Amino acid sequence: MNAMSLLLFKVTLLCYLATTCAYLTHVASGRSVAEKIGRWLMRGTFALHCLTLAVRFFEAGYTPVANLHESLSFFAWCITGIFLLLDLRYGLAVLGAFLSPLALLLMVVGNVVAQQVTELSPLLDSWWFPIHVGLAFLGNAVFAVAFIAGIMYLLQERMLKSKRLSTLFFRLPSLDTLDNLNYRCLTWGFPLMTMGIVSGAAWAYSAWGSYWRWDPKEVWALISWFVYAALLHGRLAIGWRGRRAAILAIVGFLCLLFTFLGVNLLLSGLHSFETLSGR
Amino acid sequence: MQIVAVGLNHKSAPVSVRERIAFTAEQQEEALRQLVSAPEILEGMLLSTCNRVELYACSHDGAAAEARLKDFLCEFHGLDDSHLANHLYEFRAEQAVRHLFRVAASLDSMVIGEPQILGQLKEAFARAEGCRSVGLILTRLLHKTFSVAKRVRSETAIASQAVSISYSAVELARKIFGTLEDRTVMMIGAGEMCELAARHLVNHQTAGLLVANRTLERALQLAKQFNGRAVPFNDFPDYLPQADIVLASTGASGYLLTRGQVEKVIRQRKNRPMFFIDIAVPRNIEPEVNQVDNAYLYDIDDLQKVIDANLKERRKAAEKAETIIDQEVGRYQRWLNDLELTPTIRELQQHLEDIRRRELEKTFAQLNGLGTKERQALEACTGAMIKKILHQPIAVLKERRQDMTGEQYLDAARVLFGLDGPTDDTKS
After folding, report:
1. Which member of B174, B270, B313 has the closest CB to residue A239?
2. CA B60, B64, B69: angle at the middle one, nearest 5?
């Protein structure tokens, strides 16, 4: 009984593909028309994605983040939303050229994994579920932007240092802008992530009676949290910036990605999707 | 109707020739008046810059107008024909329109993409408007030209990248710092190039300028000029932590600034980036400075390499610009052809209608006692005849206006139907 949401998911996926093409065209050719088209496609795609998630919510009867397919879709949705907010504020079209392929990739992976609605374990069906997962994914999405900004920074810095300026050099924003973006994302992402972990602990207490169980997901989340804490501290107290901040943002996001995907796919524990479905 | 262009530019003529046929601002109005007083020239415009002198005109007779424009250039400046003949180029119809578009889009400039030519063209047009030497056709042509130049500028990268040392320094600084507001610039040495770069930087509202120079008077003078501050030459390292952008151009023979010093300064600045521009030969700043994190060093060769790359980009953009211009030339040419087509069709219809009326009246006068019914039948019959006769010629004229032969067909139609009065041949 999830044909509708799956159809919508596929259409959304195609929209992400179109958006990506538009943004890449903009970066390759510098045509401002392509940028405008990309922006409106991104907005349209986001609206459609909202609808997809809403339909899925009604079909499944719970916030649709209980299996890998749903989580990937939700993650892509968060990234798009955060990008659109940033775009409103800073108008960094070239960021879209990097973020839309990431969202597209998540959707493509989401398209090949199992897509049926899973039965949510009654033990876990509480209000903590959407709060914990929502906060965690929002934090992840903000850090995804920091990750992209970090990659852009390293590219731009490499070109400046080596003095080989390609077309990309002229399209990418200034180092200062990218470094600022890194900092902005950190100040938003870190509290979100912290709240995500805390709400998870609260939920664990209400569901299983203990706050922390050293389950692999919890361990990896903690490792990521420490990476970002180190970065934040370094920025504020020691004056880390630029390359080092960019590299740490990339490392942090790779940890997060492992926390999200690696732990679920390679290790087992309380956070595996099987546990979620109560099997 | 044809557009005609005659002129010379930096490629076709050396400066010794260009300077002799350049028009001063005062001469231009007189020249325009003389130009449009010639019977072959309906509308005229004159563009005179240090790199080119060009006359644009529109005329019914392209060849005659072309000859007239050439004579005019020689006569006005009192030069011999043979003097100019080798240097002048001439374009007609589509070619002339294309040439003007290329000039305006700065494809024909010495430095491709330089922006001044468009302003000069606008001035030339304003002057021609002031003298009422341009009418419907050239006005439309120039408006089209300005929009083509704008389109080329916005759709290609023709002018987006710096091609001078000082501008490329500013461009690089902007890629490091984003906005240059609130950044401090330090000049070590006060060479000419350094001064030029400083001027461009200060134009971007930098917060402050520090000038260190061996002769203090020169430093004070520059500081005053740019609203900055002079610092003693030997103490400049103490001021480095304040500086975001450092311009070096002294005649010193050894390095004034070493990697070790810069590392220390960057630490003091809490890793805020610094941009070093070393335009001195021999160099003032140790090349290894570029390896320090958050420090970026460009010497004169590096800047030159950036400029070369930018010029290559511009040439690539120029190819794209040519396609845009091709499209727009076609559009303008169609408009010009339509401009003549519509009145010609109307005249053609009117001409045949006149004949019909005349002949009908004669016929009615001869055939007395025709009833209203018969008269109406005759009217309808003759009306249908001219409609049918005109159908094919009009269809052909409309069809042919798309290509180059359109004008020939139009001329042929006017001659065949005698729309411009009887020609000399038929009179005799």
Report:
1. B270
2. 105
ipTM of predicted complex: 0.84
Whether B332 contacts B97, CB under 8 Å: yes
Q: Which residues contact B410 (CB under 8 A, 6 or more apart)?
A: B337, B340, B341, B344, B397, B401
Backbone φ and ψ of A53, nearest 5°: -65, -40
Query: For the domain that residue B292 is a member of, what is the CATH number?
Result: 3.40.50.720
Q: List the one residue out of B144, B113, B140, B125 whose CA is nearest residue B46.
A: B125
Residues B182 and B302 in one domain: yes
| Block residue for tokens 């710096």 | B162
**Domain annotation covers residue A169:** yes
Categorize the per-residue pLDDT at A279 as very low, low, confident or very high, splitting at 50, 70 and 90: very low
Per-residue pLDDT tens over the stretch B125-142: 999 888 888 888 888 899
- What residues form DSSP beta bridges with B210? B186, B229
Give the total number of structural domains in chain A. Answer: 2
Q: How many angstroms separate the CA of residue A175 from the nearest CA in chain B?
A: 5
Size of interface A-B (CB pairs under 8 A): 58
Tell which of B155, B180, B208 closes a domain.
B155
Q: What is the pLDDT of residues B267-295, one digit of tens each?
A: 999 889 999 999 888 888 999 999 999 99
Please name the residue of chain A whose CA is at the shortest distance from the CA of residue B304.
A163
- CA-based nearest distance B88→chain A, Å: 38
Nearest CA in chain B to A31: B155
* A116 in contact with B, Cβ within 8 Å: no
Domain range spanning residue B137? 2-155
Residue B147 sits in the same domain as residue B8: yes
Q: Do B172 and A160 touch (CB under 8 A)?
A: yes
Kindly list the residues from chain A whose CB atom is less than 8 angstroms away from the CB atom of residue B306: 163, 165
What does the alpha-carbon distance between residue B81 and residue B105 come to, in Å, rounded to a whole number? 31
Interface contact B157-A32, CB threshold 8 A: no
- Chain-chain contact of A160 with B161 (C-beta, under 8 angstroms): no
Q: pLDDT tens digits for B228-262?
A: 889 998 888 999 999 999 999 888 888 999 999 99
Q: Which amino acid is at B384?
A: A
Q: Are residues A37 and A157 in the same domain?
A: no
Say whether both A242 and A145 belong to one domain. yes
Nearest by CB to residue A174, choosing from B154, B178, B306, is: B178
Per the listing, tokens 């001409």 go with B351
If asked whether residues A103 and A172 sit together in one domain, one would say no
Residues of B known to be catalytic:
50
Q: Which of A109, A135, A163 is the last residue of a domain?
A: A109
- Domain encompassing residue A162: 119-279
Contact B306 A239 (CB under 8 A): no
